[in-house]
Specification:
The protein is α+β, with helices and mostly antiparallel strands and 549 residues long. β5 (127-131) and β6 (134-135) form a beta hairpin. The chain has five domains: 2-69, no CATH class; 91-179, Pdz3 Domain; 183-394, 2-enoyl-CoA Hydratase, Chain A, domain 1 (Alpha-Beta Complex), CATH 3.90.226; 398-451 and 489-528, no CATH class; 453-485. It is globular, with a radius of gyration of 26 Å. α13 (453-468) packs antiparallel against α14. It has 18 helices and 21 strands. The chain has helices at 2-21, 24-47, 54-67, 81-89, 116-119, 141-148, 205-219, 237-245, 292-302, 398-405, 408-419, 433-445, 453-468, 471-485, 489-495, 497-523, 527-537, 539-544; strands at 74-76, 91-94, 97-102, 105-111, 127-131, 134-135, 155-161, 168-174, 176-179, 183-189, 193-198, 224-228, 253-259, 266-269, 281-285, 307-310, 318-324, 330-339, 370-372, 378-380, 389-390.
Length: 549
């Protein structure tokens, strides 16, 4: 929070300078158009035939305007500010549990390991009936969340119903300051290789990584290290830079930020002696590795300090800074682009058109520029970080998105847990055909139907065929194609059995063994991790990666 306030102060000091740089014409245009908008809104509010919700209309207009700029500039009203601060600090005061509004009820989705909710005995699937005597039926998750939060060391009474039980339960939970450890899991893997999974960059991530690495290095004697930032969407850049300091010699260029206001441009170098500047290092990335994750991976790649393994990253090279607004709102605004040591910016050239899965669309080399690492290896800008060893991710079946959207994985595991209170550890658990068949039967009992993009495209094609007069001559071929593309639950559950089984098993692990359990289970069949371990065990291959091509 102090860092955010410092950035705000710097921006506030620069405000008058920026104003002075605006021409008289620019200032007039801003003033004129604000007057027009103000007058137009007053007229609509007074004379429009129906009543206008002033607050909602204004928010809609703000969101529409900001979306035309870039995907990351956004308005944060006062009621959402605590959630925004949680994403940057990883802290809040409450009971430490994820909740979900589903079918008019409030469910616990995940009590965080070691936090008050878990210590008080709450489990995933528990239905919150009352909070401090106030009924929660029909309430949304934001409403319930605000009542669970409060000052540290205060008590909140929760009445809940556990699935499979008739009697309700009641428990008093002592709130505390919740700090989510961004290092979800770390361990020693085969080949005496240390492994650290970093879920996000908060104001505590550097400390957590340092503690994990020092434990692995000093107490476990690891001789190489993997940092896993897959699905890590970024966060606080300062902590990312601090982590880079642990592995890079003092005085090296790490990052440059450049924006419209030159007085705010920044250059960052490593400022301290590294904990270990020679240990063989690898970073695992995927399509959802973004922002600070890309700074970490890209800087280590540019300085030839680590081998990057996985799939091309998201492509977010824009810096956001907070600006205070009236009525305790904030504007999270893109103020600069960042450039890693080779001089490249990894921002996707067309950031308005990512693929549905978050990956960067293909960008031809003709639209990008070549840069060079410290040892002369060519790297390109304009579309995320391309790993040194590319492991293409399997495309997620659309069926999984629909199951997740309808919370059917969650609902099944909650029911399944009532019959199976104890299961094997994540290291030993086996996803059997019996469990999978139970899931199939569960979906059939729910009459699970799902549409797909191909179905929507066919509907559109049919309208075009009718309009252009092709329906009479090609309707039979169209109907044949339609039948082949029609969703079929049994067929698709057989077709995607491997991915559905894996996804279901990970949800089971999460409910029994928290986020750590999910990671441990997933690593057992992780192709990216397998490739990384093979590369680190082959010293010649590791060193060859850094040679000029």
């Amino acid at each position: 929070m102090r860092k955010l306030l410092l950035i705000s102060l710097i921006l506030a000091v620069s405000h008058n300078f920026v104003q002075a740089q605006l021409s008289e014409k620019d200032r007039f245009e801003v003033s004129k158009n604000l007057d027009i908008y103000n007058a137009l809104f007053k007229e609509l509010n007074l004379f429009y035939v129906d009543s206008i919700n002033a607050g909602k209309t204004t928010i809609d207009n703000i969101e529409f305007m900001l979306k035309r700029l870039d995907p990351y500039t956004e308005y944060i009203p006062e009621e959402e500010l605590s959630e925004f601060l949680f994403t940057t600090t990883g802290e809040y005061a409450g009971i430490g549990a994820g909740i979900l509004s589903y079918k008019g009820k409030i469910f616990v989705t995940e009590p965080f390991e070691g936090m008050p909710a878990a210590l008080a005995g709450l489990q995933a699937g528990d239905i919150l009936l009352e909070i401090n005597g106030e009924k929660m039926d029909g309430r949304n998750s934001s409403y319930a969340s605000e009542r669970l939060k409060g000052q540290p060391n205060t008590t909140v009474k929760v009445k809940f119903q556990r699935p499979g039980e008739k009697k309700t339960r009641e428990v008093s939970i002592n709130r505390k300051r919740i700090e989510i450890d961004p290092v979800t899991y770390y361990s020693v893997l085969p080949g005496n290789t240390g492994y650290i999974y970093l879920s996000g960059f908060t104001t505590h991530s550097a400390q957590s990584v340092k503690a994990a690495f020092e434990d692995l290095k000093t107490n476990k004697g690891v001789t190489s290290l993997i940092i896993d930032v897959r699905d890590n969407g970024g966060g606080v850049v300062e902590d990312c830079l601090e982590i880079l300091n642990y592995f890079i010699p003092k005085g090296k260029l790490l990052l440059t930020m450049k924006g419209k206001v030159r007085q705010l441009d920044r250059t960052y170098r490593s400022t301290q002696q590294a904990i270990d500047s020679v240990i063989p290092l690898a970073v695992l990335v995927n399509r959802q590795s973004a922002s600070a994750s890309e700074i970490l991976a890209g800087t280590l790649q540019d300085l030839d300090r680590a081998v990057i393994v996985g799939s091309r990253t998201y492509g977010k090279g824009l810096v956001q800074s907070p600006r205070q607004l009236p009525y305790n709102g904030q504007l999270k605004m893109t103020t600069a682009k960042y450039y890693i040591p080779s001089g490249r910016c990894i921002q996707a050239i067309d950031y308005s058109h990512h693929n549905d899965d978050g990956s960067v669309s293909y960008i031809p080399d003709s639209l990008t520029s070549v840069f060079y690492t410290s040892k002369g290896r060519p790297v390109r800008d304009g579309g995320g970080i391309l790993p040194d060893f590319v492991i293409e991710e399997k495309k997620m079946p659309a069926m999984i998105y629909y199951l997740e959207a309808e919370n059917l994985f969650f609902e099944f595991v909650v029911q399944w847990r009532t019959k199976h209170p104890l299961i094997d550890s994540p290291e030993k658990f086996t996803m059997t055909d019996e469990i999978y068949d139970e899931f199939r039967a569960f979906l059939k009992s729910k009459d699970f139907n799902y549409d797909r993009q191909s179905g929507k495209a066919l509907d559109n094609l049919k309208d075009i065929m009718v309009f252009e007069g092709y329906w009479d001559t090609a309707s039979e071929e169209f109907k044949s194609l339609e039948n082949k593309l029609k969703p079929d639950l049994d067929r698709d559950m057989d077709l995607y059995k491997g991915q559905l089984s894996d996804f279901l098993a990970r949800q089971i692990m999460k409910q029994y063994y928290f986020a750590k359990g999910e990671i441990i289970y997933a690593l057992r069949s992780d192709e990216g991790l397998k490739k990384t371990l093979e590369m680190l065990s082959d010293k010649d291959l590791y060193l060859k990666t850094f040679t000029k091509r």
